[in-house]
Design a protein that fits this description.
The protein is of the alpha/beta class. The protein is built from nine helices and nine strands. Helix 6 crosses helix 7 and helix 8 packs antiparallel against helix 9.
């Protein structure tokens, strides 16, 4: 496995690959790799000849008073896991390498899709995400890029960006990987105390209940959301940021009975740690 820390070094390796008929799979990450990331790398390894894993804590998607400085950075362990799962190249640049100009060029998806859910309370977040991912797409020129369904709004935003900017690649969206107790895998789980971790299980419990209501025939989005909120509020340590349901793919309000694919998404704080989770409810 090759570790590249500069754009020039990565471009050199990508140029070698593009001179062949080999395909490239990209797995963008912010490091602190866990089983969820491992599943993405493994999938990329199965479907491509070369796998590139980026490890970059992207400063432009963090707002004021967020956890940029404290976000876990474990490059040595990340490289070991990435290589074990089949990565050929790990790209781990510095912020100055990825943002060399004082006046930055931005890639921004506008509209409701970036203004609801996390976008409502983190107004610069998705601009940072789309800008860095567009840079990574340009640098690695992948046939496929791999993301987890846990970041459901991010997935929809990136899908729009790929379509609107005519990126010639396939977004591969992989299922949420969970702890044995149901908590969605996240690099931020390391922030949780044992008590907070246990409290966080209410998220999975509430989503399972929502799924059961849906399977039983409930098509009123408001009633499902209300039930989900009530379950989460039964946990004293839970501080709800949002519990919302929107129609996919544009994350638009649901008018009348649910139709097609719908995203039930939630963000809840336990202590200082903000966790997100979701489920897709599809009317067939």
């Amino acid at each position: 496995m090759i570790l590249c820390k500069t754009v020039r070094a990565l471009q050199k390796e990508i140029k070698k690959v593009k001179g062949t008929n080999k395909t490239i799979g990209l797995v963008p990450t912010m490091g602190a790799l866990h089983a969820g990331h491992a599943s993405l790398i493994e999938a990329a390894n199965k479907e491509n000849d070369i796998v590139v894993v980026s490890v970059f804590v992207n400063p432009t998607q963090f707002g004021p008073n967020e956890d940029l400085d404290s976000y876990p950075r474990t490059l040595e362990a990340d490289c070991i896991l990435a290589e074990k799962m089949g990565a050929n190249i790990v790209f781990a640049p510095t912020p100055s390498e990825m943002y060399p100009s004082r006046d930055m060029t931005w890639v921004e998806v506008s509209g409701d899709i970036t203004k609801v859910l996390c976008g409502a309370t983190r107004p610069i977040h998705f601009r940072g995400v789309t800008t860095i991912v567009a840079k990574l797409f340009n640098l690695t020129q992948p046939e496929r890029a791999y993301f987890g369904q846990k970041d459901a709004q991010q997935v929809q935003v990136l899908t729009r960006m790929v379509k609107d900017l005519f990126f010639q690649l396939e977004l591969r969206i992989m299922p949420i990987i969970r702890e044995e107790d149901g908590l969605a895998k996240s690099s931020r789980n390391t922030y949780l105390s044992k008590k907070e971790h246990k409290a966080g299980l209410i998220l999975y419990k509430s989503l399972r209940k929502a799924e059961q209501l849906f399977i039983s025939g409930q098509r009123d989005a408001e009633k499902i959301v209300e039930e989900t909120i009530q379950i989460i509020q039964s946990e004293p340590l839970a501080d709800i940021d949002y519990v919302k349901m929107y129609a996919m793919p544009e994350l638009t309000p649901i008018d009348g009975p649910m139709k097609g694919r719908n995203l039930l998404a939630l963000a809840v704080k336990f202590g200082k740690t903000r966790l997100i989770d979701n489920t897709i409810l599809e009317v067939k």
